[in-house]
Design a protein that fits this description.
Elements: H1 17-34, E1 40-45, H2 53-62, E2 64-69, H3 74-77, H4 79-102, H5 113-123, H6 126-135, H7 176-195
Parallel strand pairs: 1-2
Helix pairs in contact: 1-2, 4-5, 4-6
């Protein structure tokens, strides 16, 4: 494992407030200090394991501004889910195949996973990460960069209002203004059904 990496683990496999706080204090803070990086905006998933009083106090002391993204909107507002994890999954499959061809008979375990992950991190392009922040409208900040059609889920009818009725083109990225118009059209259709 690379010397400046750290591994946090819980039996459940889920992130906890303690593990996340440990990451911030033992890995992230020393990295910031070593590279003299300030100020810092840290976008975090709005899950309760990431939002604690202790974390807030620690980040305030470090000069780190926490911005919690809405939980359960990962496919829309979170850069890693929007642009990074897809390529990483492909790279992971390729790295595992390479590992297995170079280490015949070995399987991937907790003991050798860091080798595979390092290969992926080394190959990951920073532009991929940057594009995720752009697509989520986080940097540069742009509320219309978000593809609001993802808020609608899979194509389906909404109580008598299909997407075509609401002037929706599923091959086009939907702006905030178009999303609001679509929602109003759906609400108008709902109101008509109620009045009848």
């Amino acid at each position: 494992m690379p010397s400046k990496w750290g591994i946090g683990r819980r039996d459940t496999g889920w992130m906890t407030a303690d593990v996340f706080n440990q990451f911030i204090t033992e890995l992230f803070a020393p990295y910031l200090a070593e590279n003299n990086i300030k100020p810092v905006i840290l976008f975090i998933h709005g899950h309760k394991s990431h939002i604690t009083l202790q974390l807030s106090l620690t980040c305030k002391e470090l000069g780190v501004e926490l911005v919690a993204l809405y939980p359960n909107t990962t496919r829309i507002t979170q850069p890693a889910d929007v642009s990074v994890f897809g390529p990483i999954k492909k790279m992971y499959r390729k790295a595992v195949r390479k590992f297995q061809s170079e280490n015949v008979g070995e399987v991937v375990t907790k003991l050798n996973i860091a080798i595979i992950i390092k290969a992926i991190v080394d190959d990951l392009k920073s532009q991929t990460i940057i594009k995720g922040f752009q697509a989520c409208g986080l940097c540069p900040f742009d509320k219309n960069a978000i593809d609001y059609s993802k808020c609608l889920g899979a194509p389906r009818s909404v109580e008598g209002t299909d997407r075509q009725t609401a002037d929706y083109d599923e091959n086009k990225i939907m702006s905030l203004k178009e999303f609001e118009k679509y929602c109003r059209a759906c609400n108008d259709r709902q109101d008509e059904k109620i009045e009848i």
